[in-house]
Amino acid sequence: MTFENVLFDSENGITTITINRPSKLNALNRKTIQELHDAFKAAEEDVNTKVVIVTGSGEKAFVAGADISEFADYSVSQGAELASQGQALLFDYVAHLSTPVIAAVNGFALGGGLELAMSAHFRIASDNARMGLPEVSLGVIPGYGGTQRLPQLVGKGRAFEMIMTAGMINAEQAKDFGLVNHVTNQEELLPLAEKLAGKIMNNSSVAIAAAITAVNAGFEDGENGYDEEITQFGKCFGTADFQEGTQAFLQKRKADFPGK
Could you tell me if 63 and 103 are in contact, meaning their C-beta atoms sit under 8 angstroms apart? Predict the structure, then answer.
């Protein structure tokens, strides 16, 4: 699969999606957001893809933000439409994929870049990573889910501080805050992501998809996460993966999940 601003590579059950606008520090413009949607959709529909890794090209930036030149002269209605369409097309879309998504944050993840990383199911970072939501320094607020996902991940007080100061935190601070799970050096970032992906792939892809649905439900208005957990738990009993997993455990052998 070929794109202008995105690299797409699938191998051994892992699809790696790389934002590739190095001259713009991988900033998100409309075309890149559309291409990312298409790339994630292709990965989700590929039965051979068990885990998606999203990262940025080069060593400076994951995504340094949105491409401000595209919307500097927008009206109120155009601004609202930009946020609405972007959330639906990419950020909410990624968060609700049934395929696990790991964000490998390699450098700056600012504004829309951090919002994309937060849309992933979890994050790891290189030790040179810097993260922040600087939108208020431009007279606007995060519009791709940042005001909602950041408090969920780091707590309301820390989120307010990051948003109000428009400041950046480093990788170790992000780990302390719970924003990223692991920090490593630049050279080991993708190998670590692939190692984590390998551990995920040892388990039932059907059960993982059910877990994603249940966890997400607990963070959505009008949804009862406990009720969704009960529903998804029950559904697991009707899957071939459950039959294989339980039989493998009882027979003291490694499970060979069919993914059904």
Answer: no
